[in-house]
From TrEMBL:
Organism of origin: Bacillus smithii 7_3_47FAA
Role summary: Cell wall formation. Adds enolpyruvyl to UDP-N-acetylglucosamine.
Enzyme Commission identifier(s): 2.5.1.7
Protein's name according to its UniProt entry: UDP-N-acetylglucosamine 1-carboxyvinyltransferase
The encoding gene: murA
A cellular-component GO term for this protein: cytoplasm
Length: 428
């Protein structure tokens, strides 16, 4: 296991290139299970979640190659192998194997997913959708068993707007008999990306990106080539970093409309931003103003950028309030930021931040992926050396983070954890 060491306090400038979207990738890869010939996905990020899914597809008989961000999956010899334990527990998105395997084989056994601990993360809406399509769903010793004689299109109203449930129901429904309608569907760009891949494979999906999605089932799906969308959360993280400590950073390979809520908030803080076709330039900030943030479903402010944004707000003049309405417990980064001298109080699901403060380097722990991003930005701002453990969380979602930061002029490096640090992690 490793930690990141960051020598902070140096301004950053230059260009950073954004990779393919993690939260698309983790759905696009399972979607290939539904095809009857090879599917190629271009532009995948080189992150551990992608590697784990590659191995999971190989476990069920897929032939998979992954080189230079391009994955080809030959799904012809796949079987519905039970996956109750092992790699499925390592990432949240292994739940997409349920929808995809159910859609192709009419049966699946998949362990309940792992992923970041952000408070309760139920999958009742996914199950409601599978059952509406005709599947029998049981939970046996921590694994979900799905069986159906046949899948029939149905009308599913989501009680909670859920990215995962929307995509999972699409995966299960594309080969069902008749029409499925998902109402109160999530509208995130990643949902449109998955629908685009499935339609390229021969599916008939309309309305992805709106809150009503109609799917007319087809019998066969074929292979195709697909280019993934850029990662709006990785891009947003670098925009926040640029606002905090940049002297002019160009963020390349982005879809600017996907980042409108972030751009609007940064502009409200007086951060200079220029928008191009597929690039965003964040200029050097002068004094930045405190603002309030409330996370919402897309196109609202994304919960995945709430934690990095909190770090930026420690540099803003005045009091800011951040409220996460999606994951009320996504506040584990706050204690770590406090160790670095941040002035933050937590009240319910809100963080109240007073700034500006000079952050100090410290030993901190990334409890989840975006907490990790928040602490890396804090380390870059802080005086002295910051050590961030829990790097395995960061590597789940930020490809080549050390190389990208050093390319902007940062001094960041990886070090192996000492025996003593490993012992501390085991006992905590
Ligand atoms: N929810 C339910 N029941 C369900 C599903 C969700 O109550 O059956 C609740 C959740 O507890 C949460 C809300 O609905 O309060 C939204 O959850 P959603 O299902 O949309 O989240 P997800 O699909 O599990 C994805 C991303 C997350 C991101 C959320 C919200 C993936 C693999 N993960 O999770 O990304 O925070 O949408 O936008 O796509 C991350 O990238 O760091 C990350 C955690």
């Amino acid at each position: 296991m490793e930690k990141l060491k960051i020598a902070g306090g140096y301004p950053l400038k230059g260009t950073v290139k954004i990779d393919g979207a993690k939260n698309s990738a983790v759905a696009l890869i399972p979607a290939t299970i539904l095809a009857e010939s090879p599917v190629t996905i271009e532009g995948l990020p080189d992150i551990s979640d992608v590697q784990i899914l590659k191995h999971l597809l190989m476990e069920i008989g897929g032939k998979v190659t992954f080189e230079k961000n391009e994955m080809t999956v030959d799904p012809t010899e796949m079987v519905s192998m039970p996956l109750p334990n092992g790699r499925v527990k390592k990432l949240r998105a292994s739940y997409y194997l349920m929808g995809a395997m159910l859609g192709r084989f009419k049966k699946a056994v998949v362990g309940l997913p792992g992923g970041c601990h952000l408070g309760p993360r139920p999958i009742d809406q996914h199950i409601k959708g599978f059952e509406a399509l005709g599947a029998e769903v049981t939970n046996e010793q921590g694994a979900i068993y799905l069986r159906a004689k046949e899948l029939r299109g149905a009308r599913v109203y989501l009680d909670v707007v859920s990215v995962g449930a929307t995509i999972n129901i699409m995966l299960a429904a594309v080969k069902a008999k008749g029409r499925t309608v998902i109402e109160n569907a999530a509208k995130e760009p990643e949902i449109i990306d998955v629908a685009t891949l499935l339609n390229n494979m021969g599916a008939k999906i309309k309305g992805a990106g709106t809150d009503v999605i109609r799917i007319d089932g087809v019998e066969h799906l074929h292979g195709c080539r697909h280019t993934i969308i850029p990662d709006r959360i990785e891009a947003g993280t670098y925009m926040i970093l640029a606002a905090a400590i940049g002297e002019g950073i160009l963020i390349d390979n982005v879809i600017p409309p996907h980042l409108e809520s972030v751009t609007a908030k940064l502009r409200e803080m007086n951060v200079p931003i220029d928008i191009g076709d597929d690039q965003i330039f964040v200029g050097k900030s002068g004094e930045i103003k405190a603002v309030d943030i409330k996370t919402l479903v897309y196109p609202g402010f994304p919960t995945d950028l709430q934690q990095p944004f909190t770090t930026l707000l420690t540099q803003a003049k005045g009091t800011s309030i951040v409220t996460d309405t999606i994951y009320s417990a996504r506040l584990k980064h706050i204690d770590e930021l406090r160790r670095m001298n941040a002035k933050i109080k937590v009240e319910g699901s809100s963080a109240i931040i007073d700034g500006p403060v000079k952050l100090q380097g410290a030993k901190v722990k990334a409890s989840d992926l975006r907490a990790g991003a928040a602490l890396v930005i804090a380390g870059l701002l802080a005086e002295g050396i910051t050590e961030v453990t829990g790097v395995e969380h960061i590597d789940r979602g930020y490809s080549h983070i050390v190389e990208k930061l050093n390319g902007l002029g940062a001094t960041v490096w990886r070090e192996k954890l000492s025996e003593e640090e490993l012992e501390q992690i085991k006992s905590s």
